[in-house]
Amino acid sequence: MSQFVWEEKYDVGVRHFNNQHKQLLDALRDVYKAMENKQDKAAIALVINNLIKYAKEHLAQEEACLLENKYPDFENHKKLHEVFISKIIQFYDDFKSDKFSLHFEIAIFLKNWITNHIMVVDRKYTDFLNNKGIH
């Protein structure tokens, strides 16, 4: 993941969700770019706003799909999304209070979310949804 580009290993078998997941890689690239260019406020504000938008759109759509299709692990999946939302709210609050090193915290969180949630947790629904004709 050193280049923060989409790779097949991130594929969850549902094209629409893959396209939305790519937004997290964009956010991760933006955080690193902001760190490299020593851009603080404006760049991080944009990243946080994009993460809020991602949470509102993607997580809601993914949950609706899983619920509608009676995904057996829906409740646990939803709880993990709630952790994501809580973390984004914390980033927003930290940003408002000018917390130092927020770039690093966001980057670490996003890397962990991509490798632990998308590549492990989301992958669990691949066969389930594909078997229902959702690709």
Note down, in words, how this protein is organized.
There is one protein chain. The chain has one domain: Hemerythrin-like (Four Helix Bundle (Hemerythrin (Met), subunit A), Up-down Bundle). The chain is mostly helical and 135 residues long. Helix 1 runs antiparallel to helix 4 and helix 3 runs antiparallel to helix 4 (102-121). It is elongated and about 45 Å long. The model has no long low-confidence stretch (mean pLDDT 93). The chain has helices at residues 15-36, 41-68, 74-96, 102-121, 126-131.
Assembly state of the chains shown: single chain
Say which CATH homologous superfamily is assigned. Answer: Hemerythrin-like
**CATH level-1 class:** Mainly Alpha
Calculate the mean pLDDT score and round it.
93
Q: Kindly report the CATH topology.
A: Four Helix Bundle (Hemerythrin (Met), subunit A)
Shape: elongated
Give the N-to-C terminal Cα separation: 24 Å
| Helix content bin | over 70%
Number of domains: 1
Number of helices: 5
The SSE order reads: HHHHH
Sheet/helix structural class = mainly alpha
What is Rg? 15 Å
Please state roughly what percent of the residues sit in beta strands, choosing from under 5%, 5-15%, 15-25%, 25-35%, 35-45% or over 45%.
under 5%
* Sequence stretches where pLDDT stays below 50 over 5 or more residues: none
Number of E-type strands = 0
Main sheet attributes: strand count, strand direction, barrel closure: none
Second CATH tier, the architecture: Up-down Bundle
